[in-house]
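Exercise 7b. C-alpha cells:
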C-alpha cells in the first residue's frame, strides 16, 4: 500500500462524509466563528465542525473546493510557505510519492472563494526539534511569506506532524497567531488551550458508522464505539482530499 494512500480521501468519499455529518445534525462553522467562540466572544451551535486541510496539495483546488462550495461549507487550509508551488519533499524520506502543492495563484484562488489560508510553517520541520531562533524563522517567516504572496496574514497555524512543545506554543502566541492546531485527537471545548487545539484526522477508510463515531466521540470513539453521542463544542475535522478515486 502506498505510504500516503490512507490519507488520500477520494472526492466521492469526501462528499459522502460531509453529507453524512449534515444529515446527522452537525453544523459547519467558519474560522471566524470558531475564533470568536474560543476567545469568549460568541457561541457555537451544537455539533459544530470546522473543516481543515494540511499542506495544500494542488488538488485541494479542483477536487475538494467544488464539493465544499456546492454545500456552502467553509474551511481552513494550512500552507507550507517555503514550498508553495513545489512538492511535499518532507515525505520523500518515507518513500511517499511526489505530490504537487498549490502555487501562489492557487492559494489566492482558494482565499478568494472562501477558504481561509493558515500557516503550516515555512519548511514542514518538526518544530520542537529546532532551536528557538529556528522556530521563530519557521513561524514568523511563514506569516511573512504568505502575506508577501498577496494573502491575508494568517491568524491560524497547524503544527507539522502535530509536533510542538512549550517553546513552540509560546513562539506561536508571540507571533500573533490567534490559535494553533495539533494532531491530538479530540474535541475543542471552552477550556481548550488556543495554541494546543486537538483535531480529528479523517482517513480514506473512515466511512459510515466508523466515521460518525470518530467525529462524534473524538479521542473516545474506539472505547465507546457501541453508541453515537452528541459532539460537544467544536470538532476540528482534518482531511486530505485527493483528486483520484
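Sequence design result:
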Amino acid at each position: 500500500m502506498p505510504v500516503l494512500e490512507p490519507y488520500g480521501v477520494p472526492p466521492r468519499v469526501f462528499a459522502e462524509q460531509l453529507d453524512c455529518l449534515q444529515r446527522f445534525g452537525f453544523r459547519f462553522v467558519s474560522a471566524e466563528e470558531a475564533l470568536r467562540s474560543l476567545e469568549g466572544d460568541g457561541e457555537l451551535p451544537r455539533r459544530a465542525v470546522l473543516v481543515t486541510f494540511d499542506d495544500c496539495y494542488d488538488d485541494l483546488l479542483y477536487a475538494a473546493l467544488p464539493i465544499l462550495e456546492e454545500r456552502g461549507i467553509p474551511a481552513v487550509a494550512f500552507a507550507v510557505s517555503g514550498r508553495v508551488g513545489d512538492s511535499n519533499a518532507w515525505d520523500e524520506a518515507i518513500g511517499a510519492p511526489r505530490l504537487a502543492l498549490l502555487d501562489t495563484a492557487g492559494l489566492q484562488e482558494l482565499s478568494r472563494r472562501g477558504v481561509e489560508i493558515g500557516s503550516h510553517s515555512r519548511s514542514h520541520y518538526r518544530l520542537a526539534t529546532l532551536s528557538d531562533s529556528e522556530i521563530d524563522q519557521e513561524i514568523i517567516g511563514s506569516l511573512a511569506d504568505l502575506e508577501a504572496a498577496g494573502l491575508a496574514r494568517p491568524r491560524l497555524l497547524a503544527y507539522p506532524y502535530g509536533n510542538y512543545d512549550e517553546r513552540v506554543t509560546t513562539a506561536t502566541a508571540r507571533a500573533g497567531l490567534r490559535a494553533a492546531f495539533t494532531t491530538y485527537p479530540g474535541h475543542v471545548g471552552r477550556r481548550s488551550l488556543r495554541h494546543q487545539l486537538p483535531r480529528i484526522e479523517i482517513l480514506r477508510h473512515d466511512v459510515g458508522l466508523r466515521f460518525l463515531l470518530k467525529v462524534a466521540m473524538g479521542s473516545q470513539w474506539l472505547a465507546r464505539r457501541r453508541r453515537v453521542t452528541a459532539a460537544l463544542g467544536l470538532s476540528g475535522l482534518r482531511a486530505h482530499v485527493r483528486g483520484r478515486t
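Instructor comment: Strands lie at 27-28, 48-55, 75-79, 115-119, 156-158, 179-185, 187-188, 197-202, 234-239. Residues 225-233 have pLDDT under 50 and may be disordered.
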